[in-house]
Amino acid sequence: MDTSEATAAGPVEVEEAEASIVENYPHLVRLAYLTLPAALGRHRRVLAAHTLVQRALPRGRHAPDPVAADTGGPRGGPPDPAYALVRQEVLRGAVAHGAEDGWRKRAHEARCWLPLPHVWGLRLHPKAGGTDELALDRSLSELGSPARAAFALSTLEGLAEREVRQVLAAAGVADPRTAVAEAAAAAGEGGEPVRALLGGGEFDPCTVQARPTDLLRRRQHMRAAGLAVAAVVVAAVLLPLAGSDDGDPGTYAAGTPAGSASPLESSALVRADAALWEHTSRMDFTAWPARGGRKDDTELLRRALAVWSRPGERVQVSATPGTSRGLPAQPPQLLYAGDVGEAAVVVLYDGMRIVRYAEPQDGKGFAALDFARVDDADVTTGAAVVVGRVDGNTRFLTAPWVDDAQTRDLLQPDRAGQPLHVAADGVTDPVRTPGAGAPAGQCGTAWPVLQFRSSAKIVEQHSFLLTDLGDLTPVHLTYTPPPGGTSAPARQPREATGSQALLNWAHSACRLGALRGQGVRAVENWEFAQQRLPEGGAAASWVCTRTDTWRGAGQAMVQFQPPGSSPTALAAVAAQAQDTNACSRFGQHVLAGVMWKSPAGHWFLLAAGSRDVTKVSATGGVRASADGQLLAVRAERGANAKLTGRLTTGRTLNALG
C-alpha cells in the first residue's frame, strides 16, 4: 500500500463524518455491539453501542489513521476516509470499554452514558435468534473485545487479515496479531453462513424488544428518591452502573420480584398418572409422568414458569425453526424437574412444544430457555428429550416405555450396541454428542446414536434408532430396502436396526451434521434402485435420503454409492431439493443421474428411477433412452444432460433438483 495516497485525502470535515455516521448508523452500531464485552448484558450493550457511535463524531477537522484509512469501506465497499475515521473512534471506545475495570470502568461509563441515549423503566435487547445464532453468541462471549472486534471486521466487513490488524492498531489495540488469531479460531471456516448470522436480529441493536424493569422495586426506588434532590442526582449517576441483572440475583425472570406470583402457576401444572402409558393408545408426551428429584420443588417450578413468562437479560432463549416462544393456551404438563450435572432442569410440555428451562445451581452465569415443536409425536419421536449438554456430552430423559437403552456407532455397522445406563428418574448417563470435537463440517471418527427398545407392554421387540442433531428431541432414523422385483409389492419403511440398514446408513452418517438445529423429526434412507455398472462392474446403490421436520417442510437428497468402497465411505450426492415431498409417501417417484468414471477410464452417464419408472431419457449434452428404470450410456466428461422418466401412468417425471 502507498501511504502517501492514503494521506492525500487530507483531514475529514466534521460534516463528512456526520454524513458517514448517519448513512452507516445501523452498521456502525452493530459493529460496536459485537465488539463490546458480553459481560455487560444485552441491555447495556445496546445503549453503549448507540452511545459509542454518536460520540464518534469529531469536534472539528480530523484525519483518520493513514494506514487504516486505506482499508475497505463499509460492508466491503471502497475505502472511505470519513467512514474509516468514525469506525476507528467507535472501535477505540468499545475496545477501551472492554479493557477497563473497577473505578476506571465506572468513570468511563459515567462519561459515556449521561449525555447520550438513556432509557428509564425499560430493558432493551435485540430480537432473539435461532440455535445457530445462540451458538455463535456463546462462542463470541468467550472472546475479549479486541478479538471480538477482529471477528466483526473480518466477517461483517470482509476485511483481509492485514487490514484487520491495521484497523485494530489504529483503534488502540496493543496486540492486533493475537486478536486476529483468537477471532480466526472462534470463526472456524467462517464465510457467508457466519456473515448471515451476524446480519440477523440476534446481533442488531437497532431493532430491539422492550420489557419493563422490576415495577415494584422501581416504585420503592422512586419513593426513596423523593426524600432529597441530592439522592435523585446520585441515583441518576449510579443506576445505569448497577449491573446487568434483572430483579433479585436468585431469579432470571424480568420484572419478577422474589415471592411474587407468576402468570403461569406451578399449582396448575398437569401431572400424568405414572401408569398412564401402559393402557393408553396415545403414545406421546401426554403419557409421560412427572419425574425427577425436584418435581415437587415449588420454588424451582415457579422460577421456570416465571422465566417462560418474562425471560430476563441473563436468560439465553432458543427455539427450533417454526416454533412459537409464546405462553401456552392452557396449563402445561410437567415432565421432569431435577438436577442434571451442575444445572437445575425443568422440562414442560404444552401439547405442541417441549420447553426446557435450565439454571446454574450456584445462581451464577446464564440460564437457558429452549423451545422445540413436537406436535404429533409418537412412540419413537416422543421417546427422549435432551436435559443437558456439557463438554461434548448429552444426557437424555427417556420415555417411560423405553425398556432397554444402548448406544452404537453408525460408522461401525458391524459392531454391537453398548449398554446405556438409565437412572430411576429416566435420565441417561452422558452420551457423546455426534461430531463433538471434530472440525466444522466433519463428523470425526464416530457417530454415536441411541438404540432403544420399547416395553413389551405396548409392542413386542420394537427397537429403533435416534440421533442427536442439536435440538431438544433426537431424530428418528429409518430405512427402506430396495425393491424385490417388478411384481413384488413396494417395500415399506422399517427401523434402521438391521444389518442391511446399518450398512446403508454408514455411508450417510456424516451427512447428518448438515441438518443440525433445523427442527428435524425423522430421516429415512430409501434404497430405491440397484444398478449393475457398465464394463462388467458390480451393483451400485441409489439411495434417496428423506428429511422431515416438525413444521412439515422437508428435503430430499439422492446419493449414489458405487460398489467396493469402504463401509463408511460417503456416498456421492447425485441430486437434492428443498421444500419438496419427494421420496415421501406423498411423493413416491424419484429420478436422478450422475457422471461415473469406470476403472478403464471411460465416462458414463448413469441414471436410475424408482419402481414405477418405465423409461428413462436423456437430452441436451447426452441424447439416449432406455426402457425400464435404469440408464447407462457412454458420455463425454462434464456432459450436461437433462433427464426425464415415464411412469406407469404415462406421466412424465423430471429428475430431482
Explain what the structure shows:
This protein is α+β, with helices and mostly antiparallel strands and 657 residues long. The protein is 25% helix and 26% strand. It contains 16 helices and 27 strands. β4 (333-340) and β5 form a beta hairpin. The longest helix has 19 residues, at 81-99. The two termini are 46 Å apart. 44% of the residues are buried. The model is unreliable at 1-9, 100-115, 214-218, 224-250 and 256-262 (pLDDT under 50).
Shape: globular
The average pLDDT score comes to: 83
Q: How many strand units?
A: 27
Main sheet record:
10 strands, mixed
Q: State the assembly state of the protein chains.
A: single chain
Could you give the distance between the termini? 46 Å
Count of alpha and pi helical runs: 16
Fraction in beta strands: 25-35%
Estimated radius of gyration: 29 Å
Helix content: 25-40%
Which structural class do you get from the secondary structure elements? alpha+beta
Low-confidence blocks of residues: 1-9, 100-115, 214-218, 224-250, 256-262
Identify the notable features of this structure and list them briefly.
657 residues, alpha+beta, 10-stranded mixed sheet, 5-stranded mixed sheet, 16 helices, 27 strands, 25% helix, disordered N terminus
Compact summary:
This protein has 657 residues and is of the alpha+beta class. Helix content is 25%, strand content 26%.
Describe how the helices and strands are arranged:
Elements: H1 3-8, H2 14-23, H3 25-35, H4 42-54, H5 81-99, H6 102-113, E1 122-126, H7 131-141, H8 145-155, H9 161-170, H10 176-187, H11 192-198, E2 208-212, H12 215-225, H13 229-238, H14 276-279, H15 298-309, E3 315-319, E4 333-340, E5 343-349, E6 353-360, E7 367-373, E8 384-390, E9 393-398, E10 402-409, E11 418-419, E12 431-432, E13 448-454, E14 463-467, E15 475-480, E16 494-495, H16 499-506, E17 520-532, E18 539-549, E19 554-561, E20 572-578, E21 591-597, E22 603-609, E23 613-620, E24 624-627, E25 630-634, E26 641-647, E27 652-654
Parallel strand pairs: 3-7, 15-17
Antiparallel strand pairs: 1-2, 4-5, 5-6, 6-7, 8-9, 9-12, 10-11, 10-13, 13-14, 14-15, 15-16, 17-18, 18-19, 19-20, 21-22, 22-25, 23-24, 23-26, 26-27
